[in-house]
Amino acid sequence: MDVTDVPHVQSDLYVQAAVPQVWALVTDIHVPARHSPELQHVAWLDGAVRPSIGARFEGRNRHFGGAEWRTVSHVVELDEHRSFAWAVLDEHGLFGEAVRDPAQALAFWRFDLEADGDGTRLRHTAAFGPGRSGLTLAVESAPGQREQIIASRQEEWRTGMEHTLRGLKEAAERTD
Predict the structure, then answer these.
(1) In a domain, 101, yes or no
(2) Which residue of 14, 18, 132, 169 sits 20 to 30 Å from the alpha carbon of 26, by its own alpha carbon?
(3) pTM metric for this prediction
(4) CB proximity list for 44: less than 8 A, separation 6 or greater
(5) 46-94 tens-digit pLDDT
């Protein structure tokens, strides 16, 4: 997905650890949930135990304002030691009609890794839509504030990404 055409958020940092070590952390879906202020819990579905194209996992989220919801994500890209991406779906119709097609995801998330000297450049990206989401509902309820609503949600995602990236960095650089 080309995120330049949709509202998106991106953050990156340098990790003083080899790409395979960082890869093991970013593809363990439980690690980001330990560091994210919004993503509270994740679990593989359908007997999956690790990422593979089409594998599904559930996420339980809590917004800073108190709202809670469940999503189902489908792994849509897995290029070992390079990229891991998933589409977040609204399979239960929380935001309108149930969506099971990754092309109509409410969001896309990804990690990209690149060797950088003795370490790894780790980039985390998320893009809104094109499917309906809580953001869609917020904009529909106050269309005159569209830009402010989107900017606020982008800042929330950026904050969560930065927490997650710092947690991944600390875990990768730990030498115990």
Answers:
(1) yes
(2) 132
(3) 0.90
(4) 29, 50, 55, 56, 57
(5) 999 999 999 999 999 888 777 888 889 999 999 999 999 999 998 887 7
